[in-house]
Amino acid sequence: MAKRATAEKRPRRERGSLNPKDIIDGAFELAEQVSLDNLSMPMLGKHLDVGVTSIYWYFRKKDDLLNAMTDRALTQYAEFVTPFVEAENWRDSLRRYARGMRKTFLGNPILCDLTLIRSALSPEAAQLGAQHTEQVIANLVEAGFSLEDAVDTYSAVELHVHGTVVLQRLYDKNKESDSGSTAYYENLTISPDTTPLLAEASARGLHSGAPDDRNFEYGLELILEHADRIIESKPGRRSSTSARKTAAAKATAPKPPAKKASAAKTPAKKTSAAKTTTTRRSSRAATK
Fold first, then answer.
1. Which residues are CB-neighbours of 112 under 8 A, at least 6 positions away?
2. What domains can be seen in the chain, in order of their start residue?
3. What's the confidence (pLDDT) of residue 51?
4. Helices 90-107 & 62-80, crossing angle to 10 degrees?
5. What number of other Cβ atoms are within 10 A of residue 190's Cβ?
6. How far is CA 272 from the centre of its chain?
7. pTM, rounded to two decimals
8. CA–CA dist 138, 161 (Å, integer)
9. Mean of pLDDT values over 93-110
10. How far is CA 252 from CA 243, 248, 258, in A?
11. Residue 213: CB partners within 8 Å, gap ≥ 6?
């Protein structure tokens, strides 16, 4: 997508009505049009229809403005993606969380640029991020993970999400630029003669190293399966799991029909008793 030289202007602002919130709002609007890299203070002044000195009154340099935008982005991100992992259903909820993170970042390129690529946080934003991570780790520990395994599991999921998102974002930015750069996996020379397996995979729509949906889901499931094996290997965990499976199997298994008392069986018992009595009498007679 070609970059726009200028951005759409807002209606003229009344003198003295500018405030930090309006500046940040305008910066997001402008960044969506010209990208975060091309955002400049003079351009923002034109977009807001104010003198650039009015912006410098609140933000002395672009980095200060970007820091404020990052804080805003993280706050909005927290509203979209709640880092809640249920202890009793940690695998499904962690999967939903990972998918939610990826969907939010892919749908908000500026959010990705601010929090993953640039990633300069204010003390308040840093504290918010730490609290989110603490919440996930605490729920994983409650689910039965050790602290080390909980941190490793969440780190693996987070790195998987962030890595695929950043790769996709860099790929999109290269396509939008005039550099002609492409992704690594698109530069590979694949031929049925020299790389027959890769050629067949490519024909099936399989791309090694591409941050697409298929590769993302495959990697995520591998992480979750490994974490599941870790938690199931804990002492006492296997027995409790087996007990739950046995109980569940018994609960769902069809029950045999109940035995009914049969009137025909009673005479049989009497007949058997009579035979025993007759046998005893015969034995006594033979003895005599």
1. 105, 106, 165, 166, 169
2. 86-182+205-235 (1.10.357.10)
3. 92
4. 140
5. 17
6. 72
7. 0.71
8. 20
9. 92
10. 14, 6, 17
11. none
Using the structure block, give the residue that is written with the tokens 């003390």.
123
Tens-place pLDDT, residues 200-219: 998 998 888 889 999 999 99
Residue 87 CB neighbour total at 10 angstroms:
14
Question: Using CA atoms, how far apart are residues 87 and 127, in angstroms rounded to an integer?
Answer: 23
List, for residues 108-148, the tens digit of each pLDDT value.
899 999 988 886 777 887 888 888 889 899 999 999 999 99
* H, E, C per residue of the chain: CCCCCCCCCCCCCCCCCCCHHHHHHHHHHHHHHHCCCCCCHHHHHHHHCCCHHHHHCCCCCHHHHHHHHHHHHHHHHHHHCCCCCCCCCHHHHHHHHHHHHHHHHHHCHHHHHHHHHHCCCCHHHHHHHHHHHHHHHHHHHHHCCCHHHHHHHHHHHHHHHHHHHHHHHHHHHHHHCCCCCCCHHHHCCCCCCCCHHHHHHHHCCCCCCCCCHHHHHHHHHHHHHHHHHHHHCCCCHHHHHHHHHHHHHHHHCCCCCCCCCCCCHHHHHHHHHHHHHHHHHHHHHHHC
